[in-house]
Amino acid sequence: MANEAKPCPCDIGDRSDYGGLGQEVQIEHIKAYIVKPSSGSDKAVIVIQDIFGWELPNTRYMADMLAANGYIAICPDFFVGKEPWNPTKDWSTFQEWLTDKKPTDINKEVDAVLKYLKEQCGAKRIGAVGFCWGGVATHYLALLYPEIKAGVSVYGIVREREDRYALKSPTLFIFGENDNFIPLDQVSTLEANLKGKCSVDFQVKIFPGQTHGFVHRKREDINSADKPQIEEARKDMVNWLNKYI
User: Fold this and answer.
1) Is 90 a catalytic residue?
2) Catalytic: 221?
3) pLDDT tens string 100-129
C-alpha cells in the first residue's frame, strides 16, 4: 500500500509459483480461496489480500500456513472481480485504480464471509490477518467488528485520524524498519495514539532492516539473511492469533 505522501505502489517482490492446498468457493457475490486444517476446527481467520489480489500465490501460501496451525483460513476477493494492481501499469494511475477499491469499504463482503464461516464452516471464533492493502482493512475491521477476536495488520498504511485508535479487537501491527512507503514517524504516532486511546491489547512491532512486503512477499528460501525475521514475524502472527482466538 502506498503512503499518502508517496503514492507509489509497492513492488510485488518474490512472486511464488505456489499452487495452494485449498479450493475456491462462491460466497454470495464474491469468490474466495478457503483451506481447512487436517483436523476439524471451530477457529477461522480471514486473510485479506494486498493490492495484487486474492489470487496472489504468496497470500494463499499464508492462508495455507494458518491452516497448518489449526485455523480455517479464507482469502476472499475483496476487489469483487475488479482487476488487481499489475506492476506493469503506469504508477501515476494508481490512485485512480484505487478509487473503487477502498480497504474501508468492505463491510458487505466481510458480513458475507462471517456468515459463511459461521453457518457453513462451524466457526465460533474468528480473526483477521491482512497484508499491505489488507493491513489497512484489518485495522478497519478491528475498529468496527468486536466479533473479530484478533487482528494482525501487516505493513498497512497509517492514517492519522481520531477515529483510528479505539480498537475493539486485540491487534498486532507489524512493520519493516526500511519500509519506503510507511515512515517510522507514522508508526511512532500510531503507537502513541493507541497507548492513549485504545482499551484492548495491542502491539506495534518493527522489524530491523526489513522492507515493505517482507512477511509474505519475500521468500525465506532465497533470502537467507532475512529468513530469521521473516519466520519470526510469521510466528508472531500465529502466536497472536493463538492468544486471542
Assistant:
1) no
2) no
3) 999 999 999 999 999 999 999 999 999 999
